[in-house]
Amino acid sequence: MTEIKKGLAGVVVDTTAISKVVPETSTLTYRGYAVQDLARHCRFEEVAHLLWHGELPDAAELRALTERERALRRADRSLLALIDRLPETCHPMDVVRTVVSYLGAEDPLEDRGRSRDELLAKALRMTAVLPTVIAADMRRRRGLDPLLPDPNRGFAENFLYMCFGEAGPGTHHLDPRLVRAFETSLILYAEHSFNASTFAARVVTSTESDMYSAVTAAIGALKGPLHGGANEAVMHMMLEIGKPERAREWLQDRLSRKQKVMGFGHRVYKDGDSRVPTMKAALDDIAELTGGAEWLRMYDELEATMAQANGIKPNLDFPAGPAYYLMGFDIDMFTPIFVMSRITGWTAHIIEQSQSNALIRPLSEYTGVPPRSLRGVA
Fold first, then answer.
1. How far apart are CA 95 and CA 339, in angstroms?
2. Residue 163 in contact with residue 170, Cβ under 8 Å?
3. Could you report the per-residue pLDDT of 92-151, keeping only the tens digit for each?
4. Rounded CA gap, 153 and 337, in Å?
């Protein structure tokens, strides 16, 4: 009988030079560099260059990338008008998905630009403009006008500025420590090998479809709560708990009823998600700046209770959810922010797939009705 690998668990379908989880240390690496080291020492723009080109940029390469990215940030009037026409009741991921399709529709080389340089240009365009789109969408849902991107700010700081202005809710949104904490999250979310959304993008690319279609498929996969939507689910869970004092009882009750708890466990990591300590340190900084100590206490209580119950450890979404909440982002915006980061990893994989392509077409085991005849059927 054919062995079925549900969810393709354990199946190796191709090679990649972009990222790997090193089994011996459970460490995620981008192009050989440990992600926690990249988060500690690099800017997001440097990591994007690394994912696209295979090496960290030198000073001239970084300057060229930065200049091109900043020049591409503006959303034109027709794009902003498109966002305004979409219902505010739709999920912000629907807006992001629609915008990527629009970018493809207005690109004269949508179906023809398949060289590496042309694909890199598309990747950079999406990376530059999606933060502008996401910030504008969040502000319109709050009844605010969009803020133009600031070419004098780095990628992470510019996004915070477009969302909140110079100060925003609270007073610390452009505090350098908060900017750095946010940038850390972007680096940690940028890439993660053949996850569901990346694999979706590679499947579409394998048909020789265009990059925008592949990214749109990836966005659709990322919208699901078992993938990118998990950071939103974590914060909804914490808000439902309400107080740190309720966390242990809430979690024990959830586990006794065998219900899923978001933010814990990961198919790839057997000894804990290597990104969590770095993101937890960023959460600590954010909580100190914004007065979020009670969320830290809830975090610690949930983590300890889960460890005692079954030894399952948090994944990246567990600290990222409260971190984004304390920064002032609406919860529905958490996954679009994930897109804003992961677009670099997706496009790196799309380029890799397109340069060494084979149509991805797995087989299935049929379990339906056996062959039968139409004879005698009225």
1. 12
2. no
3. 999 999 999 999 999 988 777 689 999 999 999 999 999 999 999 999 999 999 999 999
4. 18
Question: What's the rounded Cα separation, in Å, for the pair 331 and 238?
Answer: 12
**Burial level of 197, CB count in 10 A (0-12/13-18/19+)?**
buried
CA distance 191 to 349: 9
* 86's tokens: 């979409």
Q: How high is the pLDDT of residue 171? A: 44
Task: Quickly tell me which residue has 């009705």 as its tokens.
Answer: 369
Mean pLDDT over the full length of the chain: 93
Q: Which of 54, 188, 72 is nearest to 124 (CA)?
A: 72
CB–CB of 326/102 below 8 Å? no
What is residue 168's predicted lDDT score, i.e. its pLDDT?
46
Nearest-angstrom CA–CA distance, 357 and 188: 28
Mean pLDDT, 10 residues at a time, over the chain (378 residues)?
80 92 89 97 98 98 98 96 96 98 91 87 97 98 96 97 75 78 98 95 97 98 87 95 97 93 82 92 96 96 95 94 97 97 98 95 92 80
Residue found by looking up tokens 């265009």 in the block: 210
Type of residue at 266: H
Per the structure block, which two tokens stand in for 280? 């937890």
**Of 276, 168, 286, which Cα lies nearest the Cα of 231?**
276
DSSP code for 264: B
Tokens at residue 275, please? 């990104």
Q: What is the largest CA-CA distance in the chain?
A: 78
- Residues belonging to the active site: 266, 317
Burial of 17 (0-12, 13-18, 19+ CB in 10 A): exposed
Q: For the whole prediction, is pTM greater than 0.70?
A: yes
**E runs forming strands in the chain:** 19-22, 27-30, 33-34
The residues, ordered by sequence, that sit 6+ positions from 61 with a Cβ below 8 Å of its Cβ are: 49, 53
